[in-house]
């Protein structure tokens, strides 16, 4: 099932599309999606719904991008009010309109203006989806730098609600809004729902630092909770708020804001410069190196399988082989947060080194996001007298055998995802991916001879294939 996605129509949309695909990966990120409303007799162009749509399980992220120059010389109140209405307010309206269409017509979403190519993966049920609304408003950085310095990002002031973001220039001294009003600041764009606003500075920072779907939506959820609690008074920019969030969970599984719920009077007010200072620290630089390595491994693996499947060059081995099964398999992999991917990469690298010296070996571990999902890496030695097809069949049989054995001793598992890789391989030119969904109808005890052969081939002991034999991903070690 091949399809072609837009790469963005405007320069700012292209930046958004490229950054989003690195974070959310290509199977779940769709720039410039359309609806067929207004097309008569199947002719004409459809209407654009959103500049970027991310669909990942129950998570739905709607982006609207607007780029408009904010004057550096005009009166700040007048210039800001005009810019806000043209970019932020207009984008917010587009997002809310897109949300209504997606809810009412989930089957009529297209990747092209001609409305010939439908969205390749289904939308979640509107009864269960979690919607994240994100305005990307660019063009204000120079004025932000002139007025406040810092990084040039828009500040966050939750006390601003709706029309309080702008001030009628001709009556600004008489306006009842003046007590909350502050130009170049963002609060509640829509009083009834949460809309995030990013700019040319913070878009790149957020998608670059929170570069997995799990890390990204976890941050948005925590940010929304913090603002709803009334405990954020001010942040000099989104990047400063991100610093507050990450510093409490740096190199740990869970990040959060350092607000104690038992002290309700405590309020966060975050000044400028925290993010820049953190970037200069050695631990930050180490983290970026470790993240890059895991990205080149786990993210590449997901996108490589996606490309092969969509081009009909690879099939998913196992008992789950439909496109829906493949998407679920890859989505489970993509659900792993960045710090877990770093640990997975370390575990993979350690076992790969073992395989290069001892030959066939394996490693299995539980997902840190969903403990009922297991992963398997099988490094299998090819014999000199084997044809590639003979070797490949044997390799997949061993992988499927591992699936069933691990399920037998760990019955809580609902899915197992595995990779069978040739020992002394170069890159990922030779691997298989398998996806096993356990079934109560299957009884592995009916095959005692096959089980013994498998145990012999891999040197398996009973005490190595129960739950204790699973690798508990060591977050601290991978972060250190």
Explain what you see.
The two termini are 42 Å apart. Strand 2 (47-56) and strand 3 (59-67) form a beta hairpin. The protein has 13 helices and 14 strands. Strands 1-2-3-4-7 form a 5-stranded mixed sheet, sandwiched between helices. A 5-stranded mixed sheet has the order 10-14-13-12-11, sandwiched between helices. It has helices at 11-24, 76-104, 141-148, 202-209, 213-228, 238-247, 274-279, 282-310, 323-334, 338-358, 388-409, 448-458, 475-479; strands at residues 29-35, 47-56, 59-67, 130-138, 155-161, 185-188, 195-198, 232-235, 268-270, 317-318, 361-366, 373-380, 415-422, 431-436. The longest helix is centred in the N-terminal third of the chain and has 29 residues, at 76-104. With 480 residues, the protein is of the alpha/beta class.
**Terminal residue distance:** 42 Å
- Overall geometry comes to globular
Question: Care to count the β-strands?
Answer: 14
What class would the helix/strand composition place it in? alpha/beta
Q: From N to C, what is the helix and strand string? A: HEEEHEHEEEHHEHEHHEHHEEHEEHH
How much helical structure, as a percent, in the residues? 25-40%
Strand content: 15-25%
Mean pLDDT: 84
Low-confidence stretches: 261-265, 466-480
Gyration radius (Cα, Å) is 25 Å
Strand order of the largest sheet: 1-2-3-4-7
> Count of helical segments?
13
Q: Main sheet, how many strands, which sense, barrel?
A: 5 strands, mixed
């Amino acid at each position: 099932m091949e399809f072609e996605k837009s790469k963005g129509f405007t320069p700012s949309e292209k930046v958004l599309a490229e950054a989003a695909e690195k974070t959310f990966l290509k199977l779940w990120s769709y720039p410039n999606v359309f609806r067929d409303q207004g097309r008569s007799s199947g002719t004409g162009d459809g209407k654009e719904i959103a500049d970027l749509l991310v669909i990942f399980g129950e998570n739905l992220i709607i982006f609207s991008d607007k780029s408009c120059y904010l004057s550096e010389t005009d009166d700040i109140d007048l210039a800001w009010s005009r810019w806000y209405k043209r970019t932020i307010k207009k984008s917010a309206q587009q997002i809310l309109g897109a949300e209504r269409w997606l809810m009412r017509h989930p089957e009529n979403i297209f990747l092209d203006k001609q409305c010939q190519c439908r969205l390749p993966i289904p939308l979640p049920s509107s009864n269960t989806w979690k919607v994240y609304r994100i305005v990307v408003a660019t063009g204000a950085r120079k004025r932000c730098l002139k007025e406040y310095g810092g990084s040039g990002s828009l500040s966050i002031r939750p006390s601003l609600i709706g029309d309080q973001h702008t001030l009628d220039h001709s009556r600004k001294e008489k306006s009842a809004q003046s007590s909350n009003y502050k130009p170049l600041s963002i609060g509640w764009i829509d009083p009834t729902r949460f809309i995030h606003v990013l700019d040319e500075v913070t878009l790149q920072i957020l998608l670059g630092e929170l570069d997995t779907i799990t890390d990204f939506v976890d941050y948005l959820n925590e940010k929304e909770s913090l603002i709803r609690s009334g405990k954020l008074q001010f942040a000099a920019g989104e990047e400063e708020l991100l610093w507050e969030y990450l510093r409490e969970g740096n190199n740990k599984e869970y990040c959060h804001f350092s607000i104690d719920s038992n002290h309700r009077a405590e309020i966060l007010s975050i000044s400028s410069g925290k993010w820049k200072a953190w970037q200069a620290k050695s631990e930050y630089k180490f983290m970026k190196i470790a993240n890059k390595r895991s990205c080149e491994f786990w993210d590449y693996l997901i996108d490589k399988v996606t490309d092969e499947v969509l081009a009909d060059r690879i099939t998913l081995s196992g008992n789950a082989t439909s496109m829906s099964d493949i998407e679920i398999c890859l989505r489970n992999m993509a659900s792993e947060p960045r710090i877990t991917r770093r640990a997975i990469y370390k575990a993979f690298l350690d076992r790969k080194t073992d395989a290069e010296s001892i030959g066939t070996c394996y490693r299995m571990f539980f997902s840190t996001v969903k403990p009922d999902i297991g992963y398997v890496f099988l490094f299998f030695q090819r014999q000199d007298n084997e044809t590639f097809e003979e070797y490949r069949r044997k390799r997949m049989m061993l992988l499927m055998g591992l699936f069933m054995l691990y399920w037998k001793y760990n019955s809580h598992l609902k899915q197992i995802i595995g990779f069978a890789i040739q020992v002394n391989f170069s890159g990922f030119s030779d691997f298989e991916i398998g996806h096993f969904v356990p079934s109560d109808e299957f009884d592995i005890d009916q095959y005692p001879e096959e089980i013994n052969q498998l145990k012999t081939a891999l040197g398996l002991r009973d005490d190595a294939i129960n739950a204790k034999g699973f690798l508990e991903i060591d977050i601290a070690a991978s972060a250190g």
